[in-house]
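Comment thread on ticket #2218

A.B. wrote:
> Attaching the input chain for the structure job we discussed in standup.
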Amino acid sequence: MLAAKVYIFRLAVMLFPKIIRIFNDMQKEIDAMSAKRLFTCLALCAALLFGTISVPSVAAVNRAGYAAFSYTDWSRQQGRSDWDDWKDFWEEWSRSKDWPDWQNWKESGWNKWPGWYYCWYWLFGFNWVQWWNSRSDGNKSVPVITDPPYYYDEIDDYNLYFGHLSAHSSLSDGEGSLKEAYRHARDDAGLDFFAVTDDSGMFDNAAEATLADGSKSSEWTGGKAIADTFTDSRFVAIFGYEMAWNNGNGHINTFNTNGFETAGEAAFSRAGGLLNYYNKLKKHTGSISQFNHPGKEHGDFHDFNYYDGEIDALVSLIEAGNGEGAVGSDKYYRSYDYYTRALDKGWHLAPTNNQDNRSANFGDANTARTVILAKKLTRDDLYDAMRNRRVYATEDENLEIRYTLNGHIMGSIVNTASDEVRIRVKLKESGSETIGKVSVISKGGEIVTSQTLAVQSYTLDLTLPADRPYYYIRVDQFDKDIAVTAPIWVVKGSSNSGISGTHGIILDCSNKTDKDKTDGNKDKKDKNAQKKDEAVRNVCDLINKIYTNGQNISQSAVKAARDAYNKLKEDQKKQVDNYWKLVAAENWKVWEEYRSKNNDHSGKKAARQKE
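C.D. wrote:
> Ran it. Output below, let me know if you need it in another format.
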């Protein structure tokens, strides 16, 4: 080590005079250089530096700017025939920037850049371009808009968490303690979350408990405490209960309550007991409930009767698969037909698939899973996702599904006046098999369209008629495993689009008062959500005022809408579905200049029709 240090020191002493001599020579050259030549060299260096930075930064800015709007969609809604021309304009305008496309460099204008740029790119710009080409979204070229998306797309906004929402411990009719259940689900099954939902009628002092207060049951309070103990940043333990009727009503799991009710209580055991339980839940608007294993054996909730808007906001889940037997065996029960039946009866539900464990194999009895789409792995985030139906059911523990319609994630309610909807389905099979048949399902189990994918990763991009009440995704794999997502409901209305908020609020960006809105939640949390929704509606109204008279643009309204939009928080901005109308208005002058120069619109349209 000492010898190495001595060698480095001697090398530095030897090189130092030479370095000083080089700098002196450079100083002499600069002194002898004319001002014009010096300026030229400095300008060249600045151009090289700008070229190094500009390509990725310009690409990133423009990609973010264009991802939120589509003038073409607005043209269709207005009955205009020039949306193809707008597309031509945007393609031509994008190409005129000569942004380098690493994959198609000859066509993109990359070959037009001077030779020195390639050297500079290789020395300094390589890492930037490599970063762009290795992005997680799979888009490996500098973006040139060929078919702009209609809306901001939430398809990558949420993480996927795998687990179960129904199981029984020794507190009721299951094997194994509550601690053993959570530990096995976390450490052996490798789940992200796990819910134990014992039969409430078997808790101690059950007769003295109410939905508001279960403190007189030590098993209830102890169960909630144990769940809190097992919950951390990598695992969420949930403790709920099951209302298990034996009279054909069905079974219901309920989560996020201070207490519990029992099916044996007089108000719930006699005729009308199911409806009475619904009315009880309506007084506890923070609760979340799930229809368990609907079918002939336990009941189908009187053919999913007693629907109303308030209870629809509180019962947000339904089991499409149930059982701890192997998938496909007689100990495993599929209820996909009942899932569709409930949707057709008006319920807004997301499907789950739970093992309903009673043996000590908590979470790994088979490959079925419930998957929740949430921002973070916390109990509050999971509850928010469950309440808003960001959930899908799968019989394959490795199948990832992300699904949006017009940019909105599964479970949403979307208001649109367009005759078409854009559906995107991002799928990934991380196991040894491929994806299989992917179908878009609607009312009555209708297969709207389907494609078979013999690959392990794929993103479907579909445009379908907006003439059905809802659309959900079903995947049938080659080994006969099935997965189904929550639907996205389509409400045909004005040109102002909206997405459902918590508890069924629909942001339709209209001039209706708050009294006209559907809101089944009265607690403080949803009052804050209502304030946020009011801010979004205000921006939507300002955007609508831009178009004061047909196609004329009010520039003052454009400025007012932009200023109001910029004041919103990021999650609020994502709810402004007609943001593209604002961007289109801001680019109106550029579009008109292009249109005035291009007199060959009819020829292009005729050529397209021939194709």
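A.B. wrote:
> Thanks. Noting for the ticket: The chain has a mean pLDDT of 77.
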